[in-house]
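Need residues for this backbone.
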């Protein structure tokens, strides 16, 4: 069983793994794990909406068993917050769009250094990165 704190920890670990891989020249792995960190972060946000004693809503359960970041954001009830942040911060808007380019199929592709660097920045930048923004909701 994976709980919210596990998902938070996994998001941080996968981002750290991505940074180590990037530094070692392993760009495809860095790209994939940076996106996976966002997936874990969004799933932590979804987990925050549930309680230990509640039986999960089937519709919500169906929505969260996905790797699609936009669907996870919707399941986490973050759509309005994302739109608000995008209007206030064009850099975040670009990063959210870029991060949504990621999918679980990214692990089967080769990614050059520039794409991995863009993904890491889009995910981790302290001012306008996606994961720092997600942290306030998990």
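Answer:
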């Amino acid at each position: 069983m994976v709980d919210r704190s596990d998902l938070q920890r996994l998001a941080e670990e996968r981002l750290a793994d991505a940074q180590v891989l990037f530094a070692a020249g392993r760009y495809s792995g860095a790209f994939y794990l940076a996106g996976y960190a966002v997936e874990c972060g969004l799933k932590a946000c979804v987990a925050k909406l549930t309680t230990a004693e509640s039986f999960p809503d089937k519709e919500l359960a169906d929505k969260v068993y996905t790797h699609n970041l936009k669907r996870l954001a919707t399941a986490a009830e973050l759509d309005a917050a994302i739109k608000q942040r995008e209007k206030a911060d064009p850099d975040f808007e670009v990063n959210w769009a870029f991060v949504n380019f990621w999918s679980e199929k990214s692990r089967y592709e080769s990614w050059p250094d520039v794409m991995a660097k863009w993904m890491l920045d889009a995910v981790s930048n302290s001012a306008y990165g996606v994961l720092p923004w997600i942290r306030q909701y998990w």
